Amino acid sequence: MEISEKWIRHYSSKHKILLVGEGNFSFSLCLASAFGTAMNITATSLDSEDELCTKYMDAMDNINILKRYGCDIQHEVDVHTMSFDNSLSLQRYDRIVFNFPHAGSRFFGREFSSRAIESHKELVRGFLENAKEMLEEDGEIHITHKTTYPFSDWGIKKLAKGEGLKLLKKSKFELCHYPGYINKRGSGGRRSDNYFPVGECSTYMFIQS
Description:
Blueprint: E1 7-8, E2 11-12, E3 17-20, H1 26-35, E4 41-44, H2 49-55, H3 59-68, E5 72-74, H4 86-89, E6 93-99, H5 114-131, E7 135-146, H6 156-162, E8 165-172, E9 201-208
Parallel strand pairs: 3-4, 3-6, 4-5, 6-7
Antiparallel strand pairs: 1-2, 7-9, 8-9
């Protein structure tokens, strides 16, 4: 018997979804819980498993539940080189998702500096460059990002245009739409497991031009 399709916001249980830059894997688990399965989800972190255990109290609990749902979990995945990673690059995805990209803790409290903004832009540019090579023909790349200054100076839409992508839709992001998702600071240090206020933010959805 065919399992019925389930949706949570922009994501369907029938989509082949790649999640990158996961922290405590609570966003992945939110999708899996909504779908009742994670057979079509690949969830990745830049951190190693040992680093995750150090940074996030609930990461391994979330990962273990995801595995029971059938999720493909991968660690030490760099968004700047992921299109060359054989465990990922041999597949094509309907949705590639990067929530709240950030270039690291060295820029906490220094978001207004030109160096911080350029480093963040370089992170996003490298992600887009790789992600576009891993999309299904009608696939989408999603970036959830703060829309207020100085984050607005990253120029997400301009970066995407530079990679031959066009904006399909921009949708206001609200945490209440994703039950169980708890965004974390990450990036190392004593405050990695702390929640950060998302403020005004949106999900940008890009497709190939």
